[in-house]
What does this fold into?
Amino acid sequence: MALKAKTAWNGTSRTISDGPDVDQWVGRTPASAWAYAAPYSGDLTAYTKKTVADNARYHGTTCPATPEAQDPITIGGKPGVLLAYDCGILINIAVTVHDGVGYTFALRDPTIPAATDPADAAIFAALLDSVALPAP
It folds into this structure.
């Protein structure tokens, strides 16, 4: 089931998986996914660095400062980066920048104590494959 954000993200504040400023996908499993976006004037490299730094700042007590993997992907036909974290649970974050907006998609699976999992990777890939970024 998809749940739409109740408020707009301001582009700088901390976000959480079930916060009012994120769109959410929830189902019958413990895994969940969410997304948020805000205006961003930098490129994909800068947005990726910002995302890694934000994750370290907000989740540094439970997640490593850098992801276990950082791989190129495609999101909505645009270049993106997949960040895979083992935070005692699986956290995967995918980012892209399109037309002056930074987009972040995340998957959290509290049942997997690793940065990657084939079943979760397939679910997240299908979700990212369904993304249609707005036309400029």
Summary: Helices lie at 44-59, 118-129. The mean pLDDT is 87. The two ends are 28 Å apart (CA to CA).
